[in-house]
Design brief:
The chain contains 17 helices and 20 strands. By secondary structure, the chain is α/β, with parallel strands linked by helices. The protein folds into 2 domains: about 1-240 and about 440-464, Aldehyde Dehydrogenase, Chain A, domain 1; about 240-430, Aldehyde Dehydrogenase, Chain A, domain 2 (3-Layer(aba) Sandwich). Strands 14-15-16-13-12-17-18 form a 7-stranded mixed beta sheet, sandwiched between helices. A 6-stranded mixed beta sheet has the order 9-8-7-10-11-19, sandwiched between helices. A 3-stranded antiparallel beta sheet has the order 5-6-20, with no helix packed on it. The protein is globular.
Length: about 475
C-alpha cells in the first residue's frame, strides 16, 4: 500500500496474480484491511486543507512532473501490462501507456479552470475542492483509468484514495514512486488494494466526500446506493453496448474494418468498444464477409511477440462467461460466421477467445443486449434510417457509438439521435480533452478535460 507518502505492508490476506497469456503465477499481492483503509482516509483528510491552499498552477506542475517520471519508465510499464493483462506489447504502448502519460501532461491546462471566478452582479462564484475523493478503477486499463481520475482531482486540490482492481494493480507502484520523486505532499495520494469488501468500506467511509467509479453497471448501482446513503457526490463510468451505424452511402469496407478494430481492442475488454455493427439489409452479406476476412488477420498468442494482434481475456472466469454468451446466442438463432480455423488457432495455454462475428436478425438476443467484454461483434441488418436509430438505441446502455456516411450533415443528424455520450463520425479519432461518459445504464458524470475536472469541484457563492 501507499499511505501518507510512504509504502506500508498491507495487513490483509495475500493473493497470487496469474498471467492470462500463460496461466502462470507472476506475482503475489497483499490486500488492505479495513483499518488500512481507515488510515488512508485519515491521511487524505489530514492533507486536504494544506493541499487546497497550494496554488492550482503549482499543484498542476507537480502532477505533470509525476507523468514525466512515469514516461521515463514507459517501456517497463508496457511490458508489465503485456504480462499482467495480456495486451500485445505494441498495443500496451499505444493503448495503455500513452493515454496515461497524456492525462498527466495536460494537468497544467486544467489549472486555469480551477482559478476561474464567475461574477453574477455583486456575487462572486468560486470553484473550491470538494474534499476527499475515493477513486475505484477496473483492470482493463489500469494506469490510464487511475490517471483520468487522480489528475483532475489533484489539480482541483482534492486528495485521493485510489483502489485499483485486484487483478491488475502492479503499475500503481510505479505511480506511487513517481509521486514521491515529484515531491507530491504526504497524504495527497493514497493507494490501497483489495476486493469488494475494501471497495464498499471506502465508498461508505464518512471521511470520503465523493466517489468516482469505473466498472460494471451492476457494481455501479451498488456504489451509487452506498454513496447515496452518505449523500456523497458520485460519478459513474459503466458498461456499454455501442453501435456502429453504417448508412447506405457509407464507406462499407472502412466502416467494417474500423468497427471490428474497435471491437477487438484490448481483446474486446473496452467499455466503449463498438460491438454492434448495423448495416443496410442489402449490404448485410458484404459486411459479414469483410468482417470475417478481417477477423482472420488477428493472430492470437504471446503478447510479447511482434506478430500477435489479439491477446487473452483477463481470466478463466471471463473466458468461460464469453463462451457461454456465444453458445446461448447460437442456440437462440445467431449465426457464427467465423470459422473453425480461428478456434483451432487458439494457443494451448492462456485465456484466449477467438475473434467472433455473429450475424443476428434483431436486437432481442442476450448477446445484443448484454456487455460481453470480449472479442465478439454482432452484425445486424436494418431497413431504413429510422429503424437504424431505433436499433442503435435499443439497449439499456448509452456510452459510445459511430455513424458512417459520405453526407456529413446526414451523419451528424443521425449521430444526434443516438442516446450515447460519445459518437464518432466516419472514423474520427476521439478528442482526449472531450467529455467522456454515458447515458442510462452507462452511468452519469463525465471524465477528461475541464468537464472531468468539474467533478472534483463544488461552487461557493460570495455575496458582497
Amino acid at each position: 500500500m501507499f499511505i501518507d507518502g510512504e509504502f506500508r505492508r498491507a495487513t490483509g490476506t495475500v493473493h497470487t496474480l496469474i498471467a492470462p497469456a500463460t496461466e502462470d503465477a507472476h506475482a503475489t499481492v497483499a490486500y488492505a484491511s479495513l483499518s488500512d483503509v481507515d488510515a488512508a482516509v485519515a491521511a487524505a483528510r489530514g492533507a486536504a486543507a494544506a493541499w487546497a491552499a497550494v496554488a492550482p498552477t503549482t499543484r498542476a506542475a507537480i502532477v505533470a512532473t509525476i507523468g514525466l517520471h512515469l514516461q521515463a519508465r514507459a517501456e517497463e510499464l508496457a511490458r508489465g501490462f503485456a504480462l499482467e493483462i495480456g495486451t500485445p506489447l505494441a498495443g500496451a504502448r499505444q493503448l495503455q501507456v500513452e493515454p496515461a502519460l497524456r492525462a498527466f501532461a495536460v494537468a497544467p491546462d486544467l489549472a486555469a479552470r480551477v482559478a476561474e471566478i464567475e461574477s453574477l452582479g455583486t456575487t462572486r462564484i468560486r470553484r473550491v475542492p470538494i474534499g476527499v475523493a475515493a477513486c475505484i478503477t477496473p483492470w482493463n486499463y489500469p494506469l490510464y483509468q487511475v490517471a483520468t481520475k487522480i489528475v483532475p482531482a489533484l489539480v482541483a486540490g482534492v486528495p485521493v484514495i485510489t483502489k485499483p482492481s485486484e487483478l491488475a494493480p502492479l503499475s500503481l507502484r510505479a505511480l506511487a514512486e513517481a509521486a514521491q520523486l515529484a515531491g507530491l505532499p504526504r497524504g495527497v495520494l493514497n493507494i490501497v488494494l483489495g476486493g469488494p469488501e475494501i471497495g464498499r468500506h471506502l465508498v461508505a467511509h464518512a471521511g470520503v466526500d465523493m466517489v468516482s467509479f469505473t466498472g460494471s453497471t451492476a457494481i455501479g448501482r451498488e456504489v451509487a446506493a452506498n454513496a447515496g446513503a452518505g449523500l456523497k457526490k458520485v460519478t459513474l463510468e459503466l458498461g456499454g453496448k455501442s453501435a456502429s451505424v453504417v448508412l447506405p452511402d457509407g464507406d462499407l469496407p472502412a466502416a467494417v474494418r474500423q468497427t471490428l478494430a474497435k471491437c477487438l481492442q484490448n481483446a474486446g475488454q473496452t467499455c466503449a468498444a463498438l460491438t454492434r455493427l448495423l448495416v443496410p439489409r442489402q449490404q448485410l452479406e458484404a459486411a459479414v464477409e469483410i468482417a470475417v476476412s478481417e477477423a482472420l488477420t488477428y493472430r492470437m498468442g504471446d503478447p510479447f511477440a511482434a506478430s500477435t494482434r489479439l491477446g487473452p481475456v483477463i481470466s478463466a472466469t471471463q473466458r468461460d462467461k464469453i463462451a457461454g454468451l456465444i453458445a446461448r446466442a447460437r442456440a437462440a438463432g445467431a449465426v457464427a460466421r467465423t470459422g473453425d480455423a480461428q478456434r483451432q488457432g487458439l494457443p494451448d495455454r492462456g485465456y484466449f477467445v477467438a475473434p467472433t462475428v455473429l450475424e443476428v436478425a434483431g436486437s432481442d438476443l442476450e448477446i445484443v443486449q448484454e456487455e460481453v467484454f470480449g472479442p465478439v461483434l454482432t452484425v445486424q441488418p436494418y431497413g431504413d434510417e429510422r429503424e437504424a436509430v431505433e436499433a442503435a438505441n435499443d439497449t439499456a446502455y448509452g456510452l459510445a457509438g459511430a455513424v458512417w456516411s459520405k453526407d456529413l450533415a446526414r451523419a451528424e443528424r443521425v449521430a444526434a439521435q443516438l442516446r450515447a455520450g460519445s459518437v464518432s463520425i466516419n472514423g474520427a479519432r476521439t478528442n482526449p480533452e472531450a467529455p467522456f461518459g454515458g447515458f442510462r445504464a452507462s452511468g452519469f458524470g463525465r471524465e477528461r478535460g475541464r468537464h472531468g475536472l468539474d467533478a472534483y469541484l463544488t461552487l461557493q457563492a460570495l455575496h458582497a
